[in-house]
Amino acid sequence: MAKPAVLTHPESLKRPAGPSEYAKDPANASMSKAEKIALYTKMARIRHFEQRCIRIYQQGKIGGFLHLYVGQEAVAAGTISLLGKNDHIITGYRDHGHGLMVGMGMNECMAELTGRVTGCSQGKGGSMHYFAPDKNYWGGHGIVGGQAPLGTGLAYAVKYMGLKGSCLVYMGDGAVNQGAVHEAYNLASLWDLPVIFVVENNGYSMGTSQERSTAHPGCLAKRAEGYNMAWDVINGHDVYEVRAKTAIALKRAHEESKPTVLEIFTYRYFGHSMADPDKTYRDKEEIKEYREKKDPVFAFEQELLGEKVLTPELSLKINEAAMAEADKAALFADESPDPTVADITKHIYWEEDNRGPKTTSRGTIIFE
Amino acid sequence: MAVISYREALRAAMREELKRDDKVVIMGEEVAQFNGAYKVTEGLLKEFGPKRIVDTPISEAGFIGLGIGASMLGIRPVMELMFWSFSYVAFDQIVNNAGNIRYMSGGLINCPIVIRGPANGGTNVGATHSHTPEAILASHPGIKVVCPATPYDAKGLMKAAIRDNDPVYVMENTILYNDKGEVPDEDYIVPLGVADVKRVGTDLTIVAHGRAVITSLKAAEILEKEHGVSVEVVDLRSIRPLDEETILASVRKTHRALLVEENKPFCGVDAQIAYLIQSKAFDELDAPIHRVSSIDAPQIYCKRMEDLQMPNVERVVAEALKVLA
User: Which end of chain B has fewer surrounding CB within 10 Å, N or C?
Assistant: First the structure.
């Protein structure tokens, strides 16, 4: 049995859940009561959406892969809750949490999983390929690390247009060994691009623990030093800490147009994907321990109860509403129509979908 | 109308589009200070400055991916690959990202990116620098590929590519860079997917693209002078989209077809063209379709042998005579 993933975290980060030392950080102290409740609500919505997905998957209605975000909610919630109108995000295939955080609806997200035309990508993307460019969300990418250069390019575009913005590029701990990620690190630092690389370290790249996959100088974020980039490590179960430390990186991006690598220690409660029986590479005790001591949704609930922002009644109401919303989305996904055969050849080329005298393409572009 | 080189035509296209649209950015290895490894971008840095003309590190997956990401937000990057052979280290970005994002997002995101550079053999540099990936890339729905053969087409296709809202991969040819031809002074584009009859004839249709067009035109002259055969040469110009009608119209006229390309034969562009002709003009054919392509091996280094490996005038003439026999 491999060593538990939590032990790979630096000593300083091994602290139990409890009142957050970051509650009074300006990034959090500035939040109104309503904003705190909204943030908790979003985390609860991610949790219940994902748990509802499990049932639908087990009913055989979701094809292909399903990578759940349960256990990692505070990462997307903490980081995305700080973003403004010129801040963009892009991520890998564990992308549901980010989608819900930017404001995608449960209906369109659920319908995409079941391959319906009412899905966010009209049934053409699936679980790994959510997109909402109107909400600055650029996917949802299936190839490990492939999104890192794209996100660096989004940040380049923001800078080119003279906007004070950024791009947050999320990836798992397994992505840090991909060449594309290193090339993106180099370009981001070389060209002073406002990128924040967020390494969501859940301890395992699929079934391979960090010890067995990655040579590193104590933590993954420290690799940033090789590229002359700032970096930090964050406890991913504490949404306040995520916000406090991400706010610093965001300021660095906005004010200095400099990149940062943030490694956020987190944990996934389920297998790499639903196809992973999760029996060969980690101990059930390890999962139990994290769930009991560091559950990010529970921890934030406790925090807000302690602050008297939340009451048990309100918390129950929020969770019940999220469950009901997920149930409704599941029904919507069930009842929605499939795309048609004619839809298969749409959305391949802009020029083909918009043919006219002013477009630049003629001839045959879809072949028999 | 000015007579300029293929290289100057490409440069003029980029210069005009840089002036027309401030979202156009030129990016690649050695494109700025060095003035371009093949001098295609010479002088652009001086004229447009370092914000518009950007040198990149040797990092194809990184900078091509960066260009694709920037294009998603509305920048129009024109990325130079020093050789299209180097695209292979950026294949995930070029195919999976640029080629699929519009589709996977249900049409929400476009990638108006141009990737350009030479894609040819015949330069005595060995297999790793001699790839011609037009067939490989054009086999992916979502991607467009053009292969200009003349200065006129190089400029017109490049301008169309930059204005196009999809990823367009422009495959140039180092051997053609110094070829000269007439190019209009006024603004024009060559739309993608429009073939060009480069020589009118009645007895045989040769379909070609890229430098194979030039080889075929030379062969056509010999065939006329020495064999009294009237050859029509159809230049595809664009691989995807493909102008099927111009090919079929020519075959319906001549009833014989020879397909010439510098690719290796297996799954080459002409395999698709041959299928097209037999499926839509089978009854028009008076003889089987023949092909001339590079001899099926990695590109050989030895210059004398490489010239024989690739389609040359002698091989095209000999194969044409077989179709006409």
Answer: C
Tell whether A344 is within 8 A of chain B (Cβ): no
For residue B49, the tally of other CB atoms under 10 A from its CB is 10
Please compute the mean of the pLDDT values over residues B165-173 and round it to a whole number: 98
In DSSP notation, A60-107 reads T-S-S-----TT-HHHHHHHHTT--TTEEEEE-S--HHHHHHHT--HH
Q: Which residues of B touch A184 (CB under 8 A)?
A: 62, 65-66
For residues A158-172, average pLDDT: 98
Q: DSSP labels for A312-354?
A: HHHHHHHHHHHHHHHHHHHHHHHHSPPPPHHHHTSSS-HHHHT
C-beta separation of A185 from A149 below 8 A: no
What pLDDT shows up at residue A18? 66
Q: Is B129 a catalytic residue?
A: yes
Which domains does chain B carry?
Answer: 2-183 (3.40.50.970), 196-324 (3.40.50.920)
Rg (C-alpha) for chain A, rounded Å, is 21
The CATH number fitting domain A5-353, selected from 1.10.1240.10, 3.40.50.970, 3.30.300.30, 3.40.50.1820 = 3.40.50.970
Q: What residue in B sits closest to A87 (Cα-Cα)?
A: B73
Mean predicted confidence (pLDDT) in B156-179: 98
Report yes or no: B243 at the A interface, CB cutoff 8 Å. yes
**Could you say which residues from 83 to 112 on chain A have a Cβ atom under 8 Å away from some Cβ of chain B?**
88, 90
Between CA B300 and CA A194 the distance in angstroms is 46
- Which residues 116-155 in chain A show a CB within 8 A of chain B? 119-125, 129, 131-134, 138-143, 146, 148-155
Among candidate residues B8, B129, B209, B319, the one labeled active-site is B129
Beta bridge partners of A277: none
The per-residue pLDDT for range B103-127, each reduced to its tens digit, is: 999 999 999 999 999 999 999 999 9
Q: What ipTM does the predicted assembly reach?
A: 0.96
Tens digit of each residue's pLDDT (9 = 90 or more) over B45-82: 999 999 999 999 999 999 999 999 999 999 999 999 99
Collapsed DSSP state (helix, strand, coil) of residue B117: strand
| B221 has pLDDT over 50 | yes
**Interface contact flag, A360 B241, Cβ < 8 Å:** no
B58 touches chain A (CB under 8 A): no
The pLDDT confidence band at residue A11, using thresholds 50, 70 and 90, is very low
Which listed residue (B8, B17, B29, B60) is catalytic?
B60
Length of chain A: 368
CA distance A62 to A273: 12
Q: Is B319 a catalytic residue?
A: no
